[in-house]
Amino acid sequence: MIEIKDLHKSYKMGSNALHVLKGINFTVEEGELVAIMGSSGSGKSTLLNILGMLDVADSGEYTLDGVPIKNLNETKAANYRNKFLGFVFQSFNLINYKSALENVALPLYYQRVPRKERQERAMKYLDQVGLKEWANHLPSELSGGQNQRVAIARAMASEPKVLLADEPTGALDSKTSYEVMDLIQKINDQGNTILVVTHEDDIAHMCKRIVYLKDGVIVEDKKVKQVRASAHV
Amino acid sequence: MNSFRFLFDKNTWQEIFGSIGKNKTRTIITVIGVLWGIFIYIALAGAAKGMDNGFEKNFETVAKNSIWAWSQSTSIPYAGYKTGRQLRLKVQDAIVLKNRIPEIQYIAPVNTRGAFGGASALTVRGIKSNSYSVYGYFPEIAKIATQKIYDNGRFINDEDIAQARKVCVIGERTQQELFDKDEDPIGGYIRVENVYFQVVGVHKFTQTTPFGTDGDIFIPFTTFKKLYNTGDNSQFFTIAAYDDADVVQVEKDIKAVLRSIHKVHPEDERAFGAFNLGEIFSKIMGFANGITFLSLIVGIATILAGVIGIGNILLISVKERTKELGIRRALGATPGEVRSLIILESVFLTMIAGIVGIILGAGVLSLINSLTRDINFPYTNPTVPIPYVLGALAIMIILGTLIGSIPAQRAVSIKPIDALREE
């Protein structure tokens, strides 16, 4: 599903260049649930941003579902993001003046799905994350866990190839974190490919594979026995 | 094609309403800026048009390029004549003028008693009598200064002239003073200077000429000639030039021709006098045009100020919405879509403001119209021509697009990743 070869990325900080990714090679198969771990500054967020086409690598190859991702302009990137990717952010990033339902329906709007179908599909995904009753509430009226579930529903609504989650539990207490991870596991059980960036060990072990990043290189890549989050809830 | 679908897509507008509606106070205050601009524009343009119409109405009963010309006395000796020679217009002069000056549409010699010196004519009917000014008119007069004749009556016609009929058109006041209230004056007889005239019409008095009253009696020019023994003399000519003629030049030509006929020094300006209504009219219309132009400038400048206000607010709004726009782009909004969203917001706000402003402006115009209806003020039917309104709307769409593209460009110049990082 995802294939990365010799990915490099550096940021210019004044006169110095900060080499963040130093040749990443990495493959993700369809249906995998991968945790990307590492301390801050290890380059894990940068990697995720490149995978999410929010950022561009300096060199290296990136293939997503057989499509080579290169020569991206903003419009092309936007279309790929819309078609291939779902995002879940640490800070939820919901639009605060739109209801939960409208937030979930937003990626479908950019796919030019007609309004009625958009609403129906958004409602279906809200139902999946257990927030059907909260559909018409604004994000400010929902708890953090609920907001993150709305964000997950939004990421899933466009039926992406890959779900990218950047510290999805970073802003949540552990009980809520497990609820969110339970949801992510269930989505993965349906065959969706998911990448989770985290620095929490317990969260990482709820995935099927852990990739450790340190100073811009992969230091360890191992399959783990998945801990079911439902056991903790 | 794609952008057109975007423009007419219901979803697009739902997105726009959503983002405009989230900050109602700011939206309303922003809209008021442009609303005020368009309101001023409409109110000023309409008022200027109303004034324009008012002037036109004041002049509507008279040909707009009419000239009255009369003879005076020479001030320069010429061709053996000494200075101070009293000149007299002849009826034949009118024919020469008409032939020599192609710009003249109508020319009618006029004789009068009572209006410019000379005793008014004693007019008697039974035991009632009074003195009135008498005019010897040709039918063409009616084409130069419209004569409103009451029902059943008529103006002097060609037959009256040819046969020098003893018929007359009397004024409203003359009718009141000489006839009983319920009496039909048409067909009745009055005695003017001891000659009986049959009344053929009653004219409604309007101030169409620099002279004239509501008591004037009009008789055929040829009858006047017999009555007063005026021979070929004419006191003045009433002249109308064609609509597209330059009336100032026509007046000069008339005087030049008259000078050559009467053997007057070509530079003797005082030999003939003229009252040029066309010139006065064009000066007034020039003034009205100036007002219209000024109101356009002021209106457009005010609209511009309002639109800049919208641009300003949108710029702030884009800054506030950096993160939201980042989220939209992460979810797949293309830069084009984000740009269109901001520009359409700008155009939409401008248009709403414009339409409300036009309605309010029209309301104020009709209010002023109803207030000034009964007072003597040159202000009639203040309308704003449709092209002006459409022009204003076009200007607003263009300005809205231009000003909206500044914040729109700003919105897309921020990378989505940076926008998302913003807290």
Question: Topology of this protein?
Answer:
The complex is a heterodimer of chains A (233) and B (423).
Chain A: E1 2-13, E2 16-28, E3 33-37, H1 44-51, E4 59-64, E5 67-68, H2 74-84, E6 85-88, H3 100-110, H4 115-128, H5 144-157, E7 162-166, H6 174-189, E8 193-198, H7 201-204, E9 209-214, E10 217-223
Parallel strand pairs in A: 3-8, 3-9, 6-7, 7-8
Antiparallel strand pairs in A: 1-2, 1-4, 4-5, 9-10
Chain B: H1 2-8, H2 10-21, H3 24-58, E1 66-71, E2 89-90, H4 91-100, E3 104-113, E4 121-125, E5 128-132, E6 134-137, H5 141-144, E7 148-149, H6 158-163, E8 167-171, H7 172-178, E9 189-192, E10 195-204, E11 217-220, H8 221-228, E12 233-234, E13 236-241, H9 247-261, E14 272-276, H10 277-320, H11 322-330, H12 335-372, H13 386-413, H14 416-421
Parallel strand pairs in B: 6-11, 8-10
Antiparallel strand pairs in B: 1-13, 1-14, 2-12, 3-6, 3-13, 4-5, 4-9, 7-10, 9-10
Helix pairs in contact in B: 2-12, 3-10, 3-12, 4-9, 10-12, 10-13, 12-13
> Class by helix and strand content of chain A?
alpha/beta
For the record, the count of structural domains of chain A works out to 1
In order across it, which strands form the biggest sheet of chain B?
Answer: 11-6-3-13-1-14
N-to-C span of chain A: 31 Å
| Order of adjacent strands in the largest pleated sheet of chain A | 6-7-8-3-9-10
CATH class of chain A: Alpha Beta
Helix content of chain A: 25-40%
Residue windows where pLDDT falls under 50 for at least 5 positions of chain B: none
Find the CATH topology of chain A.
Rossmann fold
- The count of β-strands of chain B is 14
Number of helices of chain A: 7
Instruction: Provide the domain count of chain B.
Output: 2
Distance between the termini of chain B: 37 Å
Fourth-tier CATH superfamily name of chain A: P-loop containing nucleotide triphosphate hydrolases
What keyword list fits this structure?
heterodimer; A: 233 residues; alpha/beta; Rossmann fold; six-stranded mixed β-sheet; four-stranded antiparallel β-sheet; 10 strands; 28% strand; B: 423 residues; alpha+beta; 14 helices; 54% helix
